Amino acid sequence: MMFSCEDDFLDIDPKTELTAEVVFKDAALAEKAVLGAYRGLWTVDGFENFNTFHNSVLVDESVFNGLVFSWLTVWWEGKISPDNPFGLGGFGGYGHDRKELHRWDHLYKWIRQANLMIEGLTESTLDEDLKNTLLGESYFLRAIYHYYVWVHFGGASLVDKTFTADEDLTSYIRSSFAETVEFIVSDLDTAFDYLDGKSLERGRTNASAALALKSRVLTYAASDLYEPSKNNKSLHASYANKELIMYSGNGIPEVANSQEKRWRRAQAASLAAMNYNSSYNYHLSNGSPLDKEAAYNIYNDLYSAGSMQEAMFERVIDKSYDTDPLGWGSLAVNWWYGPGGYHYGDGNGAGLSATAPHNEFADDFQYAEDTNGDGIIDIVEDFSWTNSAHTTKPFKNRDPRMEATIGIEDGRWLGPRYYDWQVGSNPYFRAVDNSATGRLQLGKYEMPASGDYPSGTVHGLDNMIVGNIEVQAGYSHKKHLSHTPDPNLGSFATWWTSTPQVILRHTETLLNYAEASIALGEEANAKATLNLIRYRAGMPALTETGSDLLARYRNERRLELSFEGHRFYDVRRWGIGPKLTMTGVKISGELKPGVEPFDFYSGYDESKYDYSYETFPIDYYNTIVFPDKYYFRPIETTILQKHPGLIQNPGY
User: Fold this and answer.
1) Contact by Cβ (8 Å): 501, 430
2) Cys-Cys link to 504, which of 159, 212, 453, 567 (CB 3.0-4.6 A)?
3) What's the number of domains the chain is made of?
4) Is residue 336 part of a domain?
5) Residue ranges of the alpha helices (H) in 537-565?
6) What DSSP designation does 495 have?
7) What is the mean pLDDT of the chain?
8) Does 309 map to a domain?
9) pLDDT-based confidence at 91, cuts 50/70/90?
10) Under a CB-based contact definition with an 8 Å cutoff, are residues 65 and 473 in contact?
11) Residue 242 phi, psi dihedral angles, 5° rounding
């Protein structure tokens, strides 16, 4: 249902209230107003947004490293409720919910801002080209804010104009799931029409982003959770208002009245996006697998360079938040999530590795061996800790994306240590790293008596991190972080990252197309598309068919889009939920007999050490559950009190 009303004022600056008439007659003010409407996508407190590391601990990508927070316990013990809906926030005692993109009230605040822009611009007398550009951005923003309502809650209240503060909102209700999809797609089509052919600065949306988001929305909409014949959740089947959470009831458009039609529509939208966005095709045209070292370098550059190489819409982090509506200065993610052995040069500390991947994610990178020594991987197998051929050196023969995506034992970091940990001048540690690239030390290593040093065990440089050091997962984050110091940021260089955070990128669209093709039985199309992604990764062509191909596709998507927020939504729309186990790996180095004494552990060295790897359960919680109610978010009690016409989601 649509709602309309009038609004006379637009807040451009917290200290200044200007009338819409003034704003939309002035090109600079109008543009600033529209850019300000992007803020709802990244109005968290500067450490990260919902769709990166924090999101990952709520599924099966990572875990808080030796730390347990009450909000996370609420989440994993299944206690989310309308009165306690914020199991996604309150990190580290900050006292507020930081994951804004799942909050109903937050999203509608920014939907209102987008509507203010659309209304003001429609009536404005600005230059037509600028006006159309700003309208295209505004329609995109209204679409993406409604998208976040839909993907978390199901059927949304479709708001296409602004409300006044004194308007009676008791009739404010939710539209159906199907109607919500059509509303979002319509806005994205409008945005594309306005933006087609226009080039905007990084951090702003564009026509390519509109097509990419449309591909995502229609792929999600075609998924099994939203198809009554495929959704086997009894909680959903017994829900009295199924039209809010799936394609059910009357009013479903002809183009979407069967799951096959929805997959056809998703496939067509994804193909259109792939063709239009071919300029974002970053090393995705190879006819055979790349050399594994070339593949590693491509992936490392893809994530760590100044811009995500194939992103058409990203969160820019190299601008000042205070002076630029698109900017966020630089974020301290290197400090929060970087490895512990990267000192900041000022003597005040190192990376916290506050969250880190665990085995349930890391194990999904296949064992990958180059048996001919020519750099081309020719044997691949699913990795297993029960296969001794895999576990003797578990991090040495793996999918090249592994070392580029996460920090692993002896993995390259592409940035040297700072001075005191290069030369061992800090007497607290008996570990150094003088390598040119930096090599991660995530284990514990036996040390001989040497000079003034007694024998004992040393923690590797990157195993000295926040929390309970005995329950570290054995990995570190790498993707999204800055791997080398930024000289423009002075002595705090490695605290910060200016690497953009991707929201929409080209590979996702290829994956969407492959998923639709599998669902439609067009396996040759799916494998041809997936092989483009695997060849870039140095991995051989797929051979799977049927259900095995679907499983391999889901794994490819998991690895490619890791820590970008997708897994949180994918395990829901597929109706499978996350894996409910968490295990880590303890890495140990035992001195070989007869090794000459030495002062410092200086990195992985098979001439001195026999290395062993032991998996262990990470038992942080009394229980780990993912109840069926978690497939949708609860609408907060305070929202229901304000808008009694809203219907609550099942299970709450």
Assistant:
1) no
2) 212
3) 1
4) yes
5) 546-560
6) G
7) 85
8) no
9) very low
10) yes
11) -60, -25
